[in-house]
Known about the structure:
Blueprint: H1 5-16, E1 26-31, E2 48-54, H2 56-63, E3 71-72, E4 87-92, H3 101-115, E5 119-134, E6 142-143, E7 151-156, E8 163-170, H4 172-182, E9 188-190, E10 198-204, H5 221-226, E11 230-246
Parallel strand pairs: 3-11, 5-9
Antiparallel strand pairs: 1-4, 2-4, 5-11, 6-10, 7-8, 8-10
Helix pairs in contact: 2-3
Amino acid sequence: xxxxxxxxxxxxxxxxxxxxxxxxEVASIRQHQxxxxxxxxxxxxxxxxxxxGYTVFGLVMDAYNLRDYQLAFGAVARPDGIYDTxxxxxxxxxxxxxxxxxxxxxxLRTLLxxxxxxxxxxxxxxxxxxxxxxxKNGPRLxxxxxxxxxxxxxxxxxxxxxxxxxxxxxxIERLADWLSNLIVDRPxxxxxxxxxxFDFRLVAIPEYRTRNSSxxxxxxxxxxVGELGLKLVPQKARIDILAVDHVEKPDEN
Length: 253
């Protein structure tokens, strides 16, 4: 049985004299079965939104539009299996057309507060980062002629060791996000000043794969971005962090 979240939130807000929070009209949550898991940004094309194989923290990252390094758990009490349990969510927006990405994120935040009892607060933390900048000879990137959504495809390079990542119609921010996962010791912030969308290919090895087993064929993230006419510069920066104060497993319906 689904729950009418928009009606619930409207009633509660009215009782408290507050403006109602954006909410899904109905939403169903079930524990995920199978090996599929969340692998990309929140996307949808209709009022019906399906999220498959999401952990609660994956949901939080999409709801608040966070990078991995912006989510902190602190001393929050963690229910057993909260890290590993994956959920499938089917939710319908109240309008007859697909909501904007910001509207969907706001409704997802309401869902997390209502069903997962999520409580969070913002804080700022200084940490080591890499900033992605344009090299002295300029970028070597092809402007995309496509109008579709950014697509990132990952496979093995011809050497059988490095990853070959193809970016199609993507802003440079997506490259910075990818590098933050590729280079595990610090996040990567885009400071290239490049706008628009690009088609390009990155060949590099994830750092976790080089631990105790490096190979002369390994291509570092820094070398890989150099082939694109970009450069990684180590710095320190103050980063906005979302700290989770409380979260619970939801009741399924």
